[in-house]
Amino acid sequence: MIKINLLPFRVARKKENIRKQISIFLLLIFLTIVALVWYTMSMNKQILEVKEKTKQVNHQILKYKKKADRVAQIKKDLKVLEEKLEIVSSLKKQRGEQLILFDAMNDLIVPQRMWLESFKTDENSVIIKGIAFDNPTIADFMDKLENSSIFDKVDLKTAKMKNFKDGIMLKSFELLCSKAKSKEEKQENSK
Predict the structure, then answer these.
(1) pLDDT at residue 85, rounded to an integer
(2) Three-state DSSP class for 21?
(3) pLDDT band (50, 70, 90) for residue 173
(4) In this structure, are residues 181 and 143 in contact, taking their beta carbons and an 8 Å threshold?
(5) Which of 129, 133, 148, 179 has the most other CB atoms within 10 Å of its CB?
(6) How far apart (Å, rounded) are the C-alpha atoms in residues 113 and 106?
(7) Around 146, how many Cα atoms within 13 Å sit in the side-chain half-sphere?
(8) CATH class of the 109-182 domain in this structure
(9) Would you list the domain boundaries of the chain?
(10) Average pLDDT over residues 101-109
(11) In b/e form, how buried is each residue of 104-129, taking b as 16+ CB within 10 angstroms?
């Protein structure tokens, strides 16, 4: 009988299997490296695209921020202008009221018995300071003010004797007068 030694065949087969496994392992490592390089390159490309978009958005933000700042400045200037126009219109209205008030004072003062020193007006009241010879003169002036259509209510704040040159004693007074409401204001309040 013939004897065949199969050991070298088995060793050669084992060597071939080991070579196959090593080549498959190296191929897998190579494919993994290629996949990682491809993935890294695609991520870098996406990062560059995002950076570019961010740069464009920041550029647009700057562009629109300048426009928004300009709009905000225009709104601020417009508000200041509206306030100025409102002040001018209120001054025009008050100027007419002041003219009526001063014009009416000529008829309301007691001639040659008193004179006025100052007026201080606000929206609803007038403070009148003056000098008179005596208390009845002040009372007559207050009656005339109350009976006028300009004032609703007249209150005497102070009345005191004041010493002037050459020992002359006169009455110094201060009146608080509430302005009468106009027909328009009365209609607005009734609504």
Answers:
(1) 92
(2) helix
(3) very high
(4) no
(5) 179
(6) 13
(7) 11
(8) alpha beta
(9) 8-79, 109-182
(10) 78
(11) bbeebbbeeebebeeeeeeeeebebe
